[in-house]
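Class, look over these structure tokens:
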Amino acid sequence: MVPSTRNLHGRTFVVLFNKRALAARALRHAGLEEALRERELEFRVIDTETEDEGRAAAETAARAGHVVVSAGGDGTAHAVLNGVLAAGRRDAVMGHIPLGTGNDFARALGRVGRGLEQAVDALADPQLHAIDVARVNGVEYFVNVLGVGFDAEVVRHRASHRFQVPGYFACVVRTMLYYRPQVYRCTWPGGEWEGRALLTAAMNGSSEGGGFRLAPEARLDDGLLDVYRIDPVSFWEFLRYVWAVRRGTHGRLPMVHKWRAAILTVESESRLQYHLDGEYRELPEGGSLEIELQPQRLQMIT
């Protein structure tokens, strides 16, 4: 990504703080506001608890011309992204302070491993990148990943067992024990495929699930989605190869298929389970997903 600079002097930074994020809860009273104040930034911190709250607050702030900053994980970034884009302002700017557990969007931005002080430094001396986003069925955007099938069921399972499953990988293993792959039809300019798949993922960023590098070559500003389809595998094959996905070395495995596209349609005669940046969604039987990448749609502080 090629950075640009823009003078944001005089614009208020509205920080939308997800109280549900574990790291966010720890940091809420441990330095975020102090760090913003030390850099003499004009700011306002708003606590949110639900996706709808975050989206509405982000839209209101963006319409007012403020710089909108998500402070939380990938779900918080997803809500803020949709609110900012709903505002419809061409001069909208978004920032992100990664305080979640997965932080895959932050990985795509090159922000994982930076502490709170460095994240706030980026707001004080902003470098802007125009990044791609993708729109689904004309109504909702994602910035990192749309996942269909197994990974969507992992998201659903973990959300419904939030206090019973100790970690993401444990949830992945438990889901693999009962999940039955569905039949999908994928079409894109110049290609089509129909059959049973474990998962299909349209990747704008490079990882999902807290660091599983499903699309190691994906970039946020290259104008294309990296689409991965993985064929059904046995439980023991899954255990054998899952760490290759974690490392991003799975590309040559025979059950892995990849193509790149800016437009993608996914259809299913069964219930269509999917997630957007880790937020679970589903469509009834016979539903379809129309996915369209919008190049350089959002100015992002990196």
User: Anything to note?
Assistant: The first strand starts at residue 4 and ends at 5. The chain has two domains: 4-125, 145-297. The mean pLDDT is 91.
